[in-house]
Amino acid sequence: PLPTFEATNFVLDSAGNNSFLRATSGDGVGSPYTLVDIYGVQGITGSLNYELANAIDASPTQAWESLDPLTNGVRNSGFVPLIFNGDLEGNRNAINDLFIRQYPAAGGLVDTGLFSDLGDNARVSNFSILNADVAGGRVGILAGSNGGFSQGINVTGTVVAYGTAGGGLNGFMPFGVLRDSAADVTISDGI
Q1: CA 48 to CA 174: how far, in whole Å?
Q2: Distance between alpha carbon 20 and the CA centroid of its chain, in Å?
Q3: φ, ψ for residue 24 (rounded to 5)?
Q4: What is the DSSP code string of 126-166?
Q5: Helix or strand holding residue 100 (H, E)
Q6: Does the structure show a pLDDT above 90 at 66?
Q7: Are 170 and 178 in contact (CB under 8 A)?
Q8: What digits encode the pLDDT tens for the residues 110-156?
Q9: What pLDDT was estimated at residue 72?
Q10: pLDDT tens-digit profile of 17-52?
């Protein structure tokens, strides 16, 4: 078991200069890193392999705020979307109450969701993201841009698009495969 960990404001360098690993087992290659909380999920990176061991309470993301100064009266906040090209097996668990704000006016990521970008080798499967509240440029609850393989993904919540595209699961899916997935999402234009 992992020691208890809690942070009022949890921020990783969005330039990718830092890494954070919080997993109960695995090596990310031969066996997946096993994640048990939202801090471990925020540490997902690159083309490694991960799995969810249990339901993930993402409600702490509502208090996370960028350390950048206000720009045009807004500041990015919440979970920082991931760039990922590996494997995430959800084991039919849910990520609950995910909160993301990536404002284009504040230099936020164009592609916004749990994943900013799912690359062409990415494989995500068998999990839900429930009661999410996500806003960004090209935005979906799962991914801003999805070029990978997604199966058994279910999402609920709200999406606010401040850019060119907004969708329930994905903001933009230029290629890739989406199977056996569903979205019950209210989408609005933030412009």
Answers
A1: 23
A2: 15
A3: -85, -25
A4: EEEEEEEEEEEEEE-SSEEEE-SEEEEEEEEEEEEEEEEEE
A5: strand 99-101
A6: no
A7: yes
A8: 899 999 999 999 999 999 999 999 999 999 999 999 999 999 999 99
A9: 84
A10: 678 899 999 999 999 999 999 999 999 999 999 999
- 162, 155 Cβ separation under 8 angstroms: no
Residues 80-88, mean pLDDT to the nearest whole number: 95
DSSP state of 32: P
CA–CA separation, 140 and 17 (whole Å) = 25
Average pLDDT, the chain: 93
Grouping H, G, I as helix, E, B as strand and the rest as coil, residue 35 is: strand
CB atoms within 10 A of CB 55: 15
DSSP at 71 = B
User: Are 42 and 36 within 8 A, CB to CB?
Assistant: no
Cα distance between residue 49 and residue 46, in whole Å: 9
Distance CA 164, CA 177 (A): 22
State both tokens at 81.
């979307």
Contact 89, 53 (CB under 8 A): no
Q: What is the pTM of this model?
A: 0.94
Q: Two tokens at 68? A: 């950048």
DSSP 3-state of 118: strand
Question: Phi and psi of 105, rounded to 5°?
Answer: -65, -20
